[in-house]
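#lab-general

N.A. 3:47 PM
ok so I finally got the sequence cleaned up, no stray characters, all 232 residues accounted for. can someone with queue access submit it? mine expired

B.Y. 3:52 PM
send it over

N.A. 3:53 PM
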Amino acid sequence: MRVLNVLFFLLSPVFVFAQQYEVGIGFGASINSKPTNNMYFRGDLVAANYATQLTVLRNLKDDFQVGIDLHVLELSRRSSIGYTNDGYNIGADHKKIVYATYASSFCAVVNKKLYMDENYFYFGAGMGLAIARNNSKTLPVDASYEAPDGGFGLTVGLQVGYTLNFSNRFALNMEIAARYYDLDYTAEAPVVRPYTNIHYRIVAYPATVGIRYRLGYQKKLDPQTGETQIVK
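B.Y. 4:20 PM
back already:
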């Protein structure tokens, strides 16, 4: 109930606060670290993965915003080292070791904004829940291993970005983030003995470019007074 109350506070469409919102979508690429703990197939080579982002932000002050951020990306690496599992060869084949085809992080975020003329630079932090999904019935043609479906856990991270206005309503947004995932599965960890369920930690670094839409107003910095003004 407390989580629902927080979401309602951030996202309820009350007209008097409508001008305080920004909605954004972005697309880009991501890389990730090696998984830790009992994920045996770690991969020693970085792989380029897709990344998408959806953001809803509420500007509480001229230079401070809170909101909800969703990243969906792939977690994978490549390996120059060959592994064997149940008679199958994994790695050393230029194919990916896929930990999650769809790794989703749902974060509550806070950002500090630094205005530069009509545009702004921002940095902040986020915390929330993560879900890792795979189609465990089908192995992609570019993968030599795919982890089981159903990872779940916590995520925390940082983000830094730049928002460039090109109209009163729309802006170009560029963001680089780091998301730390701590994922537990109900599936058994491969190779590891004694038998135990999969549990690993991993860090992803998504970089996205997208569009932000402002509801109600645009901020503009007055170069003479140094104060921000609201432009309808």
